[in-house]
Design goal:
The protein starts with a strand and ends with a strand. The protein has 10 helices and 17 strands. The protein has helices at residues 41-48, 124-129, 131-144, 161-173, 184-192, 206-212, 229-234, 257-262, 275-286, 303-312; strands at 2-6, 15-19, 29-38, 64-67, 73-76, 79-80, 94-95, 107-111, 115-117, 152-155, 176-181, 198-200, 219-224, 236-244, 266-269, 294-299, 318-322. Residues 10-321 form the Enoyl reductase (ER) domain.
Length: 323
């Protein structure tokens, strides 16, 4: 079968198309014939070697295709062996494409519990773009932060996959959503997708500017996928919740203890979710939540160019490989 393979860690150019053996049948696993695979920033980190993936390696966590054991059109849950405790993943948990071959291929093998029917009305590219960021965002907003209809949400970093998914899911819940971005064009695109507005985070006073958007009191929930915890807390109302799930801007955060506990804030760490979270996400999609925003589609053999696009910071929404 054809697959994208990296023989070494490094820049996007290490990704190349190759012929590799197809997966062999194994108890408890099923093989999916992929139609599309979506990129995530996680894939860039895998490519760079930050997860010590075995070489040679095929990256990719997101995919959609046909389950060869049933003939059903499915999406893949990339959160493998989560376990029975929904509060946190178990000791065997891993992300597809970290230590086993991922979805940048014609075929991928996953646990049987990690396939679900493709949501009605989604194209192959939209379905492939849904699982990782959709599940991560659903868990952050619904399972962890408990976002409710009528509440206010601020999403950091408009344009990324998590941010675009957060706008869509929050609007479908009935929340009021604002965003931050480095430029006005991405704020405008977020507004077109359902956000009510936003602020530019290049201004050091952006948390106070964001608070002004909701009458000065602050937001019920802030979703931070970039690691800017101290500034994010400044945008919260007293008693607000901060859900954090990434560190693209900062690996460490320093918080002032006294304002934090007097503010009665909740700091909620979160990652991808469980199969039960995934079922909740798929129910929202079937109830009419907007499909994932697609930035650009590339053929499988152009995975390196797709990674270059992702790293440019110019994309708005998901980048997808068509297989």
């Amino acid at each position: 079968m054809k697959a994208i393979v990296q023989e070494e860690y490094g820049a996007a150019g290490v990704l190349g198309l190759a012929d590799v053996p197809p997966p062999q049948p194994r108890e408890g696993l099923t093989t999916v014939e992929l139609r599309a695979a979506a990129l995530n920033w996680h894939d860039v980190l895998v490519r760079q070697g930050q997860y010590s993936s075995p070489l040679p390696h095929t990256p990719g966590a997101d995919g959609a295709g046909v389950d060869l054991s049933t003939g059903e059109e499915v999406v893949i849950l990339p959160s493998l062996w989560w376990g029975d405790d929904d509060s946190a993943p178990g000791p065997d948990w891993e992300i597809l494409g970290d230590h086993r071959p991922g979805t940048y291929a014609e075929l991928v093998q996953v646990p049987k519990e990690c396939v679900a029917p493709k949501p009605r009305g989604l194209s192959w590219t939209e379905a492939a773009a849904l699982p990782l960021v959709g599940l991560t965002t659903y868990r952050a907003l619904v399972s962890r932060a408990g976002l409710k209809s009528g509440e206010s949400l601020l999403v950091l970093g408009a344009g990324g996959g998590v941010a675009t998914a957060a706008v869509s899911l929050a609007v479908s819940i009935g929340a009021r959503v604002w965003v931050t971005s480095s430029n006005e064009s991405k704020i405008a695109r977020a507004r077109a997708a359902g956000a009510r507005g936003g602020v530019r985070y290049l201004d050091p006073g952006w948390p106070e500017a964001a608070r002004d958007l909701v009458g000065g009191r602050g937001f019920d929930v802030v979703l931070d996928p970039v690691g800017d915890w101290a500034a994010s807390i400044r945008a919260l109302r007293p008693g607000g919740r901060l859900a954090v799930l990434g560190a693209s801007r900062a690996e460490q955060a320093t918080l002032d203890s006294r304002p934090y506990y007097f503010g009665q804030y909740s700091l909620l760490g979160t990652t991808m979710g469980s199969p039960r979270d995934f079922s909740g996400l798929l129910r929202l999609m079937d109830q009419g939540a907007s499909p994932p925003v697609i930035d650009r589609v590339y053929p499988l053999e152009q995975a390196a160019q797709a990674h270059t696009r992702m790293e440019s910071g110019e994309a708005f929404g998901k980048i997808v490989l068509e297989i």
